[in-house]
Inverse folding.
C-alpha cells in the first residue's frame, strides 16, 4: 500500500510514530535509539524508519516544516497505515522565563494558521494534546528527575516576520514556546481519532536572541526523544 506521499509497505509502520520535522533527524533517532532499524519510507526524501525501543515496536519519520506538510503525513499515517499514536519531537523558540534546553510538553496549541478552521466550519478549534500521552510523558519525566514545562505553544505559519506583537500576546497568555506544526497535528488527531502530543526542546529564545548550537540541539533532541520513548513503554499493568 502506498499513498501520494508514503511508499512504505502496509505492515512496516508501527502503531506509534515519532515525528521530528527534519528527516535526517529521523534517521539519527533510528540510528541512536532503535534496535534493528529498517528504512520504510524514502518518498520525497521524507525518511522513515521502523525498529524496536526496549522491545516496543516504533517508527520515526520526518514531518517536514509547517502545518500543511505535517498534516499530510499525520493524516496518511492514521488513515492508511492505522497509526494510533503520533508524538512530534521537535524544537521551538521560547519566551519569558523559558531557558534554552528546557523541554516543553505542549498541552494545547494556538495558531495563526487557518488549517483547523478549514476543517471545522470556520470556527476556532481548541487544539489540544491527548491526555494519556501528556500524562505519560510528564510522569515519565518526573520519575526520572527531568524537569519539563507543561503549557501552551503557538504554531505559526510565519517563521520570518508575521505579527510584530506576537511575543507580547504569547507572554500575556502564558504561552511558552513557538513552533510550526502542533496545532495542525492536534487538529488532525482530533478529526482522525488518534492520540497526539508534541514534546519540544527549546532551541532559541525569541526575546534574548540566543540559539542553541547544532550539536547541542541534536544531543538535546536525542535525550528528549529517549525520555518520550521510555514514557511510552507499556507499564506492567498494561
Ligand atoms: N519560530 C518558529 N519555529 C521555531 C522557532 C521559532 O523561533 N524556533 C524553533 N522552531
Amino acid at each position: 500500500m502506498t499513498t501520494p506521499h508514503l511508499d512504505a509497505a502496509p505492515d512496516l509502520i508501527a502503531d506509534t510514530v515519532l515525528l521530528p520535522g527534519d528527516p535526517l533527524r529521523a534517521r539519527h533517532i533510528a540510528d541512536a535509539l532503535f534496535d534493528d532499524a529498517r528504512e520504510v519510507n524514502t518518498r520525497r526524501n521524507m525518511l522513515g524508519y521502523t525498529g524496536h525501543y526496549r522491545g516496543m515496536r516504533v517508527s520515526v519519520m520526518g514531518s517536514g516544516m509547517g502545518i500543511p506538510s505535517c498534516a499530510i503525513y499525520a493524516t496518511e499515517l492514521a488513515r492508511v497505515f492505522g497509526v494510533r499514536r503520533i508524538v512530534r519531537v521537535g524544537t521551538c523558540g521560547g519566551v519569558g522565563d523559558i531557558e534554552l534546553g528546557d523541554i516543553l510538553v505542549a498541552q494545547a496549541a494556538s495558531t495563526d494558521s487557518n488549517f483547523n478552521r478549514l476543517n471545522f466550519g470556520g470556527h476556532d478549534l481548541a487544539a489540544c494534546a491527548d491526555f494519556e500521552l501528556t500524562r505519560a510523558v510528564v510522569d515519565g519525566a518526573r520519575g526520572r528527575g527531568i524537569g519539563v514545562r507543561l503549557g501552551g505553544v503557538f504554531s505559526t505559519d510565519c517563521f520570518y516576520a508575521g505579527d510584530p506583537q506576537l511575543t507580547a500576546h504569547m507572554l500575556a497568555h502564558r504561552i511558552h514556546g513557538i513552533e510550526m506544526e502542533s496545532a495542525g497535528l492536534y487538529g488532525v488527531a482530533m478529526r482522525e481519532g488518534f492520540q497526539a502530543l508534541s514534546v519540544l526542546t527549546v532551541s532559541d529564545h525569541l526575546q534574548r536572541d540566543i540559539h542553541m548550537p547544532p550539536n547541542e540541539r541534536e544531543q538535546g533532541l536525542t535525550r528528549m526523544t529517549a525520555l518520550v520513548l521510555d514514557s511510552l513503554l507499556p507499564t506492567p499493568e498494561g
Observations:
- The pocket of hypoxanthine is lined by residues 91-93, 156, 159, 178-180, 203-204, 206 (CB under 6 Å).
- The chain has a mean pLDDT of 96.
